[in-house]
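Data card: per-record layout.
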Amino acid sequence: MEEEYQQILKNAEAAIKSVETRADFESFKASVVGPNGELTKAMKGMAKVPKEDKPRVGKALNMVKKDLEALFQKHLKTIEDREMAARIGAPVDPSLPVPGESWGGKHPLTKVREEIIHIFRRVGFSVAEGPEVETEYYCFDALNTPSDHPARDLQDTYYFPPQTRFANISQKEKERYLLRTHTSSVQIRTMLETEPPVRIVSPGRCFRRDTADATHSANFHQIEGLYVDRKVSVRDLKALLDYFIKSLLGPSAKTRFRPHFFPYTEPSFEVDFSASHLGKVGSQWIEIAGCGLVHPSVFESVGYDSKEWSGFAFGMGIERIAMILHGVDDIRYFYQNDQRFLQQFQG
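The structure for this 347-residue chain is written out next.
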């Protein structure tokens, strides 16, 4: 009996090499261990084995069963690997170019940001960046924003829990941490570290508790500018923004100032533009930025002598400019990562 079991195993090891498909495998397995298989028939002979020999013969039978199961599992894995390879196809050479004509590129907001920075670099501005997590001092207090100002409400600003601590974000005292609502905090940090004159633009991401719609998002991008020197006037501010708008939108674009209020500038203005050559804009006036002369209280908070130094600041939304430039009517398109939308801006 033991020799018969071993012979069945040897026959199976030899015959299974020619089994190539899953159907043939199942048929072959049944011919060995199925109800009418060779091993099943041989097992029926156990009834004739003397009682004293049954433990030895049973052990030999179990060993053969175990070896056959391992043989079947190994060969089935080979068949499955062969089937998977057939579905995947020929091996790919990773050094070859990507098939098709689809190439990656910069996000439209990145391209607009770089274009804005390039325009201001041409007139001597450098780029300054700061943390997205800020404290109340740098985001509000140093910018002459009173404690009861609506911008500081929990309904408008993302505050961190009182016990939150950031080892890499400096505090003036023990004021709360928050996600910055504008990049004006970068201007404060720059002036605290730099003696005038100062000429910077500060691009970056900002956060406010806005309900998402076609023109608002809780996450958005701003770029703000700061110029500090002696005898800086509104005329200098208007000249710079005229230059910027014409460089960005074309030589026929126009700007105008409307009086406004910001706690960190005095006087303060809203900036409108018109560009009749842009079909989506036409000759109507559209708001694009806020600006003004830096408030003396802001200079005092950073240690600048407001009698010696003066300056102006301005800020605008990068998404808003991108929407104007490209005729996009919903700010949410910029964040959805829809390839059909993004591919329009490549090249």
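Known properties of this structure: The chain is about 40% helix and 20% strand. The chain has two domains: 2-87, 108-345.

See the next section for split statistics.
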